[in-house]
Give the backbone structure.
Amino acid sequence: MKPTTTLLAILAATQSITALKVPQNVRDFYKRVKVGRCEGSDKLKGGFFDKDGKNAKAQWSYCQKSVANQAIFLHGPNTFANMDIDCDGDLSDPGDGRCGSSEDTQGQTAFVDQVRKVSKNKIKDLNANIHPYVVFGNDREDGGPTFDPQKYGVKPLSVMAVVCGEKLIYGIWGDTNGDVGAPLVGEASLSLATACYGTKAVNGNSGHDESDVLYVALTGEEAVPGPRTKWDAKDFGEFEDSIVEVGNR
């Protein structure tokens, strides 16, 4: 596989990451990998749901089709995943109040210790109103399916690409799916969802139901935000701008 056909090469050609219109080459990648199922060596782990309920099916997987050893993305049968809303993390700044409707908010993310370390204790944890993070990986103790992206080279807090609402946005891997309820995939912080769909479309208890969101985790140390990252940013735009350099590598 030639490097120029990979998602990493496609993303490297972009110039900015704040709510980009999806470039044609990214659209082509989206259409190509969406078709069919993720099978064989491309399928790293399956048995996940992108929604719960009586009619839900465990047909979602962590996939590396066309980007083996370079990236991992969520994939369902001829589809991707939806976007539930996560409001976990630092709750001291309520933002515009939309996270207040969340019924399952927790006061910390999975990487709270790493956040304090890389931010040099400038922040206590990620804030869902500011940091565009993706909930990726499944960690549970009830015997259900689990998946640890770190075993495949994805680093905590590393940059992720999200194609949503006709936009290309970069976020970070900031949390994992827990062991309450069905083993779900497809979730992002309120700030990321807002960048995708706007303030009126999403809140702490209402996300994007259609399974058309492409979440891509990038592997390797180069995907980890560096010292210029504004972990203590006051809003989404300030943080997003600070990871441009990493996102465009």
